[in-house]
Amino acid sequence: MVVAYIPELFFKKKHPDSEDWDWELISYTNRVITLLLFVISGIRTLILIVVIYPLLFFLYCPCVLCIKSCYKPFCGLLKAKATHRFFSFNCNCPCYRARPKLRFQLQLAFLILVSLVRIATILFCLLISNHITTKSLAVVIAISFIFLLLNSLLDYYHYRVWWKYKPKFVKLQEEIILPKTTFSTKHKRYLPYPLLGDKRTGSFGDGLCTNKSCTNRKLEHILIFHLSDYQPQPRWSELKRLNPSAETYIGFHRTSAHAAAAIAHSDFRRSVKPPQMLGFGIYFARSIKNTDGKARFKGAIIAAEIRMGNVKEVTRNELNTVRNTDEWHPEFDTVYFNHEDDQRDEFCIYDETQILKWIIVVDREHDDKFSDFGMDSEFYDTKCYCI
Question: Membrane-crossing residues (predicted)?
Fold first, then answer.
């Protein structure tokens, strides 16, 4: 009789008119179920607080279980990143290595869906009258929204660290004093070094773009999924032949970390000190791979979208007509050098007004932030390619 009665606990709208021991059974079971739900939600919330508290307040949060009688394996399990991800429902699939924005969007959509389900459950429980268990369940679910709030804060923090990245400059040739002003309107973002294309592992969605004729002109896509192999855009003359209305081109510029930081808060500056092969102006290469031997400084990579204007194309035999001068302006806005090896093409624009927007990546040796935050090893402890 007792066994047959328990399954009806969550479905009866009223307490049954039965003997006293039935009332005691319902009351005891209610307490057990309510306590169990509180414990489950409490554990998840506690672990999330342990993770978020040091991040939000930059304080050391000691593990309350780290007492003399605490076993090291259990304490290590509690502190493990995989445990934190499990209790916060935070997938760590390798496909997210290069997609922090997508990861945040999917996680946010999941949290919204879970919230809607919980709200619907609360309303359903409140509509059932004279039932202690459903009322208790509604209270527990309402309290569990604390966990969802903390979970969303953690996801947003993770998104900000990766996608709204600001480097921590180190090992600079000269002391850097960043302006207190905001970034230039042309500056889209810094990208952390681990997001670059040469860091793709090729497993479970963490690979380079497989489209050999890729026409995606988004700067983030270029740096993350192409980088050194990026040349989907043809030479400027070929591009104009295929698309006469084309006005913009993607260019790559390598400079020092100090100069990159200054550019982010202001703009590019023209090179007017000889020797300048294509004349006085701002230089860009057609690919990142071929900026190594041409750039005078190293420390940062800049990918920019450029308005080319009226272009003067030259070959090696015609370099003397543009070398160490800017007399080609105002008739021309850009000088484009067609190298014998088309992969080594480069061009010079007259001034910074032709640059529409850019993204900056600071080299590993000049940026300590991603190592301080564990961004370069975030996926190392991922188990089963997910948690």
Answer: 32-59, 108-130, 136-157
